[in-house]
Design a protein that fits this description.
Layout lengths: L2 E12 L2 E12 L3 E5 L6 H8 L7 E6 L2 E2 L5 H6 L2 E3 L12 H9 L4 H7 L3 H21 L15 H14 L4 E5 L7 H18 L2 E5 L3 H7 L3 E5 L2 E6 L1 H6 L1 H8 L9
Parallel strand pairs: 3-8, 3-9, 6-7, 7-8
Antiparallel strand pairs: 1-2, 1-4, 4-5, 9-10
Bound molecules: adenosine-5'-triphosphate.
Adenosine-5'-triphosphate binds next to β2 and α1.
């Protein structure tokens, strides 16, 4: 195993607030690594720095051994790091299939539309994109809604489609941000199965922030716990659940059985 993402001594301040305080962590290639912690622990801030939403105040972030500190999200995308995003308003009128196709054809989304004016090339590009998009819709079990406008899909189906858009880009690491929020159990199960099979069969690495502890327990090993801006502990979820420091951080010393 080797390290895909390494965060070294990273601090992020917002004025007088130290949201992330001299933290180091690693996401090893081929893992589904979870990041958990009580509200205000600094998880989102950590994620935003790794995803290139903003730069750390100090410290270094390495992606596959390369210093990517302060690079923007689109630059990290070129390096193979992708984050799931809510489907933008202008894409809600495209069908599920079209939402995937616009990611592949050309590098960015505009180039697909630009390509519409280059008719000779578009035909081959479109066929390839369509084939790939249809395969992904099948993996996501969304084939039956491929011609539905994205705006009409259920919350869970939209989350699957967001993951599909990420898959079209063929990244090496995917940041999953609170995917369970608002998703019903059946679709959440589908989503978890897709993540597991992408990890097992395609070797895709995931870095996951999640409040749903059942999902974390099912998918993630290791799990990293942050509290009050610090990385507190990391390990398998079974150990994390029994760790007295973690229980203290979540529940202020409540009985161990509540840490589930
Ligand atoms: N843009 C900002 N400006 C000022 N303070 C911020 C900003 N973003 C985060 N913070 C503060 O930094 C700390 C960590 O916040 P962060 O959102 O990273 O925690 P979190 O672990 O993701 O919490 P939650 O689980 O509630 O989303 C909090 O005290 C928060 O109020």
């Amino acid at each position: 195993m080797n390290t895909l993402i390494e965060v070294r001594n990273v601090t992020k301040r917002f004025g007088s607030v130290v949201a992330v305080d001299n933290c180091s962590l690693k996401v090893e290639r081929g893992t589904i690594t979870g990041l958990i912690g009580p509200n205000g622990a600094g998880k989102t801030t950590m994620f935003n720095m790794v995803a290139g939403a903003f730069a750390p105040t100090s410290g270094t972030i390495l992606l596959d051994g390369e210093d990517v500190t302060g690079l923007a999200a689109h630059e990290l995308y070129e390096h193979g790091l992708s984050r799931t995003f809510q489907i933008a308003q202008e894409f809600t009128h495209l069908t599920a299939l079209e939402n995937l196709m616009v990611v592949t054809a050309g590098k960015g989304e505009e180039s697909f539309f630009d390509a519409c004016f280059r008719r000779s090339k578009i035909h081959a590009d479109e066929l390839a994109a369509r084939r790939k998009a249809e395969e992904i819709l099948q993996i996501l079990r969304l084939t039956h809604v491929k011609n539905e406008q994205a705006g009409n899909l259920s919350g869970g189906q939209k989350k699957l489609l967001e993951l599909g858009r990420v898959m079209m880009a063929e990244p090496s690491v995917v940041l999953l941000d609170e995917v369970a929020a608002g998703v019903n159990r059946t679709l959440l199960n589908d989503l978890a199965s897709v993540v597991e099979s992408l990890n097992r069969e395609k070797g895709l690495t995931f870095f996951v922030i999640e409040h749903d502890m059942d999902l974390i327990a099912r998918l993630c090993d290791p799990v990293i716990v942050m509290a009050a801006g610090k990385v507190m502990v990391q390990g398998p979820m079974a150990d994390i659940r029994r760790n007295p420091e973690v229980i203290e951080a979540y529940f202020g010393g409540a009985p161990a059985e509540r840490a589930s």
